[in-house]
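This part of the workshop introduces the protein records we will be handling. To make this concrete, we reproduce a full record directly below:
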Amino acid sequence: MSVQVPVRIQTGAPVRIDGKEYSAGPVISGGRVFYDKEAGSQIVLSEVVQMQMALAYRLRDDKPYQKLSNARKHSLRIDWGTFTPAERKTALARALFVRKLDKVEPANLRARKKIILRIVEEICRCWKIPPEKQPSVRQVRTWYRIFVTAGRDVRALVPCNWAKGRRETRYPQWQIDEINRLINEKLAVPTPSSFRQARILANERLKTAAAGRGEAPVLLGRGGRIGGNLLARMLRERDKFEVLVATANMREAKRQAQSVQLGPQGNLVNRQWEVDHTLLDILVIDESTMQIVGRPWMTAIIDRYSRCIVGFSLSFAPPSWASIMDALRVAVMKKDWIIAGLGGITRTWDCFGVPRRLITDHGRDFKSISMEEAKVALDFELKHAPPRKPWFKGKIERWFRTLEEQIIHTIPGTVLSKWEDRKFYDSEEFAVLTIHEVNWIVAKWVIDVYHHTQHSKLGRSPAQAWAEGLHEIPPPREPPADLLIPMTGLVVPRSLQKSGIRYMGLRWESPEFARARAFLPDSANVKVRIDPLDISIAYIYDEHREKWVEGQLVEPTEARGLSLNQWCTIAKLRRRIAEDDALSEEAALARALEEIGEYVKERVRERRKGKAPQRFKRFVSAGSAWSAIRPERLDPEMKPPGSHTIGITPVESPPLQPHAPFTDPKRRKINKGARNKALAGGEEHEATGRTSGAEDRTEEQTENDEHTPSAATAQKDEAVPSQAPRPEPAPKPKIKMRPIDYGGTREEE
């Protein structure tokens, strides 16, 4: 290897000092001035220092650098981190040989074959490099020459495989222009053609254009056609933003081109909560009919600071205020009733309180009147995330992904997110879980697993972050349970009339409504709240007493215990039947209930899994998954309200419902005397084959009669025996819903 030592340096000549470009300046006393062309600075080197640096190959002529390939020069200008891991590994392996060779003294011995072979053997023995991968002497010399010329920069040893091959265009420019016009018409459009069709059209266009130009087209592919990957490569080399604008629109192109930023992290516990909905990737069945009712919706609320899930709700109803209300109720309350009701939970769920700010998207359910009323009632700020900036609500979105990956995609009946994973997995065949079982699985995972797993961003578990964050704020406040339901119910603007509150064919009335009406003008407008999950009770705000008062559903009695969605389904079916068959409202209602009951009984008889129709899946499994464990809210020893007066007519009030909002209805037991009387009547019927209509009544019929206007009359007639037995009234058609064991004690009549 020849050594180029600049014995004479002309003023103004380009030189390289440690690989950097300098210009030789004038000679001064004691040395020469050199100007850095890139930085604009200058250095002074004495003649002795110049000679030493030249012997060490640190001061060199610029000609060897100019002989380097363009690819090598490009590698010296880019960042080390932009190379692939394989390229960096290769460069570092080569550096082992050249740096060992660079330490050989004197420098004229570095080109000898014996010395290079000894270095190669030593490095390969130390690093256990197999013989087939050992470099040759010529390779080490080449690496060292490039290494020294580049100023001992390790980037010069990166293999430039990307620059190999033929780089000039093999097609004439007029053919490239013709192909680009075809790409604009057939591929860079919202409805692109296939590459096969575009290739066929391109071949025909090139032949036609070549005939017009009087020359033969250049077709380098097989069978006298253009190359198979030419169209795809030309489309890939285009500007991605330009292609997105052509195939989609400007808005989508900007969305994909914008950078994803880190959203707000939160600074205190209960300061900011994020809420959103998602459709879980799992099919669930009905526990009674064994029918697949579909995929449940989940509404979840997460605390930004601790990443704790403060509340969630599962239901089949699509995103609405009812699901937000259910999740918000769970979030602000203490969770002792959840731990006790679910069972099998080993840890505590200590998250509760009212947030200072609730972050939502721009969905209609988050901008409803009910949401605004709940914001004022619970005293929190409602903040909508900016549009097209998902990172402002990224905590809950990322948690949904964690939930799907860690638990939902691992249980039977999951609907895998990727189609290639679903190719050999029949989700409907393996669906065996009900919505209550899925609710328990999610609650178990959230409380016992997720809250106590170290978070990658926090460096600690969410439960630890919550506990430590409580030391920096006052104790969280929990809204009273009696006020939580009225504050978070569905807002219905209605007028309080003498008959009570009417809404969607339903009527609520109570003595509390009468007291509130006494201080209001006729048909005064009041704030009415209805629990969408149980329409048995409605609330109005009494401004005179400054509190919420409740009224019971008095008609129709068949709607007691139903959700608002179930009643809407029944009312819609009733109107359709009434219009088609010109039936009365009562007959239409009875027929609608009968049709739904027959459908459910048919599914029960089949006792096999299948997919339920879309219009019935939400009806059969309406309500929240928390309904099975909701605690009692009213005192069981509370006495029913007495009578009240409408105008001048005294009216007996219906008995108080033994359930409260967010609590499912329970069957009422008859008293011991009535039970003994019924048993005696049954024995007499077995002996004589005769019984009266009053003695043959079941517990269910007794309950129905109590809620009818003729209940008092029927009881009076039963107390006074008549000479001739009364004919038994025809039972009213009732919807036969699936039996549910609600637990708890039943109120005595």
